[in-house]
Write a structure and sequence with these properties.
The protein is α+β, with helices and mostly antiparallel strands and 377 residues long. It folds into 2 domains: 4-291, Aminopeptidase; 298-371, OB fold (Dihydrolipoamide Acetyltransferase, E2P). 27% of the residues lie in helices and 28% in strands. It has 8 helices and 20 strands. Strands 1-2-4-3-7-11-9-10-12 form a 9-stranded mixed sheet, sandwiched between helices. Strands 8, 13, 15, 18 and 20 form a 5-stranded antiparallel sheet that branches. Strands 17-16-14-19 form a 4-stranded antiparallel sheet, with no helix packed on it. Helix 1 (47-61) packs across helix 8 (260-276) and helix 4 (116-122) crosses helix 7. The mean pLDDT is 97. The structure holds zinc ion.
Length: 377
């Protein structure tokens, strides 16, 4: 099966060049779910591009009958972020025009219109499939105003033009997978949403983080929030409904690296999940692997309590107990004293899952992160 390849112009630059997105689309013989995957929304987080390449290579060998639904893949989905550098470092996490995080800018229908409750009340007696179709159409109609704004003679800022072009690719998807990595040194994990934990064991992960608090218009969040709010609105009216809408942000290892083991696990986990979702019908058996679960509110980040140089830091992937030494900080001074070494201990037990790239830190700079697993996970 060959991909349909679409080039989507994104921004016309001062130099006359045009930044574009390129979407690869595989359509199966049988209708089914629409799956959207993108990579490299944050400039340093490059591993997902290789995941997409390997998925492309695999899907090309498949017969269209082995695909139920369609898959859209967009590598290098943020050309400005991907190409941003400071010295040799990829620093494209923030939009240089306005300082905003590239992954906190997206359009969320429910946040803009607060319409889920009214919609649920009006469709209380409808069947699930009708509700899903009608609600999706409703969101699409409102998004048309976002698209129309791009043609406004007064223009729109870069972040708005970018987010609209990108979200347009995924708006009618059932499943969204956004491929990131740490911008530092990280493990392999996913963020997930309420009532979607049952799908976590199909990815190949070290652990998973429930987004139990609003992070602020991330791509996955803006996509799924209207659906989560609709489910909640129905629940408040006494009707339990789950829509077949899922969103995942996979974190694949270390920033600025094509982290081979993380890429391999990304590919195998995504294929396995697509089999479980009945999108991929290639006859390969589905595997399950339960992993520790945690939530965003239980992540503990450690910031330098003084300026200095990090030494003797624990290795990534270490489970620590309260009181274990996490790292030492070699602190210089300008007060006529000898240098001092400060020891920093774990405040809670958990898994050290992320380490700063830089081991030279000023007071308040990020050093490492520990995830505390759920009691039941
Ligand atoms: Zn990221």
């Amino acid at each position: 099966m060959d991909a349909e390849i679409k080039v989507l112009p994104l921004l016309h630059m001062a130099s006359g060049d045009i930044l574009s997105l390129q979407q690869y689309r595989f359509v199966g013989t049988h209708p089914g779910k629409v799956v959207y995957l993108q990579a490299n929304l944050h400039g340093a987080e490059i591993a997902g591009n290789s995941v997409i390449h390997q998925l492309l290579t695999y899907f090309k060998t498949l017969d269209a009958a082995a695909l139920q639904g369609e898959i859209r893949l967009v590598p290098a989905c943020n050309p400005i972020g991907v190409n941003t550098r400071a010295h040799n470092f990829a620093s494209g996490r923030f939009n240089p025009y306005d300082g905003r995080d590239w992954n906190r800018i997206f359009w969320d229908w429910e946040q803009e219109h607060r319409g889920a409750r009214t919609f649920a009340a009006q469709h209380l007696e409808s069947d699930r499939v009708t509700i899903q179709q009608t609600y999706r159409e409703f969101i699409r109609q409102h998004f048309a105003a976002e698209l129309a704004a791009l043609a406004d003679p007064a223009g729109v800022p870069v972040h708005q033009r970018y987010r609209t072009r990108l979200q347009e690719q995924a708006l009618d998807a059932d499943i969204l997978i956004d491929l990131h990595s740490s911008s530092n040194q990280g493990m392999v994990y996913t963020y997930y949403f309420r009532d979607r934990a049952m799908s976590v064991p199909y990815f190949d992960l070290d652990f998973a983080i429930l987004l139990d608090r609003f992070d602020g218009n991330a791509f996955d969040e803006a996509f799924i929030n209207p659906w989560l709010e609709l489910e909640k609105a129905f629940a408040d009216l006494g009707r339990s409904l789950r829509f077949g809408i899922e969103a995942w942000t996979l974190e694949l290892g270390t920033g600025m690296k094509n982290d081979a083991p993380a890429i391999k696990r990304g590919v195998s986990g995504i294929l396995n999940y697509l089999r479980q979702q009945q999108v991929l019908l290639d006859g390969v058996g589905v595997l399950q692997q339960s992993v520790p679960l945690t939530r965003a509110s239980q992540l503990q980040k450690y910031y330098a309590t003084a300026g200095g140089f990090v030494q003797q830091r624990v290795a990534i992937g270490t489970w620590v107990q309260r009181g274990d030494v996490l790292y030492e900080l070699l602190c210089l001074n300008k007060t006529g004293q000898y240098p001092q070494v400060i020891t920093v201990q774990a405040q809670q037990p958990g898994l050290v899952y992320d380490l700063s790239i830089s081991e030279g830190v000023s007071e308040g700079e990020y050093v490492l992160a520990v995830m505390v697993p759920d009691a039941s996970g």
